[in-house]
């Protein structure tokens, strides 16, 4: 299996093979040299300030289903959109990683939907991006009106070809007791 990484887009694979035949170990050196090139860097690695101020993708960039979570075991008649919005905003406010990634975001919830069949016992919450949705799932089990709220992916959710975004670290919430000490 060959690794093909070049230090510039116009570098030809033949150049690497010439290096490989010139002396032992040269191919390894050529590949190692190309790994650290500007073409292999992720956004934000070259500029530490850019890495600190993460901006969420535009809403059209990610599927709505990837930003949506199911919230169940809600107390009938007591939980509404503003309650869920307020709870999630307070939970996210307790995460230092949230302020590092989203310094200008005050409201992580885009929309809350209570399906007619739910009778107020469950809802679907759409977040600003996939990272926040993944983080909300890690928060599953927080107490709301004396009940442990379950947060997860909607039934029938399929991630598709792309992997899901990793969540932010929720350890500060676990330590403070706002969410269960062990993930549900």
Output the keywords.
184 residues; alpha+beta; two-stranded antiparallel sheet; disordered N terminus
Task: Describe the structure concisely.
It contains eight helices and six strands. It has 184 residues and is α+β, with helices and mostly antiparallel strands.
What does this 3D model show about the protein?
The chain has 184 residues and is α+β, with helices and mostly antiparallel strands. It has helices spanning 13-22, 26-35, 48-52, 64-67, 81-93, 96-101, 130-138, 171-176, and strands at residues 68-72, 109-113, 122-127, 143-144, 147-148, 150-152. Helices cover 34% and strands 12% of the residues. It has 8 helices and 6 strands. Helix 1 (13-22) crosses helix 2 (26-35). A 4-stranded antiparallel beta sheet has the order 2-3-1-6. A two-stranded antiparallel sheet has the order 4-5.
SSE layout and pairings?
Elements: H1 13-22, H2 26-35, H3 48-52, H4 64-67, E1 68-72, H5 81-93, H6 96-101, E2 109-113, E3 122-127, H7 130-138, E4 143-144, E5 147-148, E6 150-152, H8 171-176
Antiparallel strand pairs: 1-3, 1-6, 2-3, 4-5
Helix pairs in contact: 1-2
């Amino acid at each position: 299996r060959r690794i093909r990484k070049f230090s510039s887009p116009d570098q030809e694979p033949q150049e690497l093979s010439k290096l490989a035949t010139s002396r032992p170990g040269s191919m390894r050196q050529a590949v190692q040299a190309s790994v650290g090139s500007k073409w292999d860097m992720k956004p934000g690695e070259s500029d530490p300030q850019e890495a600190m101020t993460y901006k969420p993708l535009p809403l059209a960039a990610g599927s709505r289903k990837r930003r949506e979570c199911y919230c169940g075991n809600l107390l009938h008649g007591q939980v509404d959109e503003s309650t869920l919005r307020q709870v999630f905003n307070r939970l996210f406010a307790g995460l230092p990683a949230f302020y590092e990634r989203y310094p200008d975001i005050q409201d992580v919830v885009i929309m809350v939907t209570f399906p007619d069949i739910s009778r107020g016992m469950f809802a679907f919450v759409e977040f600003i991006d996939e990272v926040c949705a993944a983080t909300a799932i890690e928060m599953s089990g927080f107490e709301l009106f004396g009940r442990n709220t379950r947060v997860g992916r909607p039934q029938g959710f399929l991630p598709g070809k792309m992997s899901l975004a990793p969540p932010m670290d929720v350890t500060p919430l676990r330590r403070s007791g706002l969410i269960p000490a062990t993930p549900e």
